[in-house]
Amino acid sequence: MAKLLIAYYTRSGNTKKMAEEVATGAREASGVQVELMPVDQVSPDDLLSFDGILMGSPVYYGTMAAELKSLIDRSVKHHGKLAGKVGGAFATSGGPGGGNETTVLDIVKAMLVHGMIVQGDAEGDHYGPIAVGAPDARSQKECRRFGRRMAELSANVAG
Ligand SMILES: Cc1cc2nc3c(=O)[nH]c(=O)nc-3n(C[C@H](O)[C@H](O)[C@H](O)COP(=O)(O)O)c2cc1C
C-alpha cells in the first residue's frame, strides 16, 4: 500500500483546516494510507517512508513558515533519497494578493531540488490549493481534489 504524508504548520488553524480537507480527498483514493501530521512531529527520517509528501503552510512574509523550512533544510541529510517521490504544496494567506501562490511555489521548488515528482493541475488551482484565511467552500473543494489526485499519483508511482 502506498503511503502519503500531509505535513502542515499552523498558528491559528487555517492551514490545519486545509490539511484536513486534503486528507479527506486523499482517503477517497484506494490503496493509499494517509497520515496527517503537524510539521513539528515530522523528522527528516520520517520522510523516507512515504511515497508522497504534501506540505502546507501559512504565508509568512510571502513565503513558508520557518518551521516548515526547517524540516526542508534538515532533510538535506537524505538529499537524493527523496527523488521519485510525489510532492505537492498548499498555503493560506491573510489577503488575496498576500503570497499564497508564491508560498506554494517556494515549497514546490524545494521538492524539485530533491528530485520529487510535482504534478500541476490544468483545471483546479494550478500550483496547489490556496486559501485566503480559513478555507472557504471553493478552497475546500480544491483541497479535496488535490488530496485525491496526489494520493492516486502516489499509488501509481509506488506501483
Ligand atoms: C509572521 C506572520 C507573517 C505573515 N505574513 C503574511 C504575508 O506576507 N501575506 C499575507 O497575506 N498574510 C500574511 N500573514 C497572515 C497569515 O498568512 C494568515 O493569517 C494565514 O491564514 C494563517 O494561517 P494559520 O491559521 O494556519 O496560522 C502573516 C501572519 C504572520 C503571523
Give a written overview of the molecule:
Helix 1 (14-26) packs across helix 5 (137-158). Strand 3 (52-58), helix 3 (66-74) and strand 4 form a beta-alpha-beta unit. The model has no long low-confidence stretch (mean pLDDT 98). The protein is α/β, with parallel strands linked by helices. Helix content is 39%, strand content 21%. The chain contains 5 helices and 6 strands, in the order βαβαβαβαββα. Flavin mononucleotide is lined by residues 10-15, 58-62, 92-95, 98-99, 133.
Any chance you could write out the topology, listing elements then pairs?
Layout: E1 2-8, H1 14-26, E2 32-38, H2 44-47, E3 52-58, H3 66-74, E4 86-93, H4 100-113, E5 117-118, E6 130-132, H5 137-158
Parallel strand pairs: 1-2, 1-3, 3-4, 4-5, 4-6
The protein binds flavin mononucleotide (FMN).
The site of flavin mononucleotide (FMN) has 18 residues, from helix 1 and strand 4.
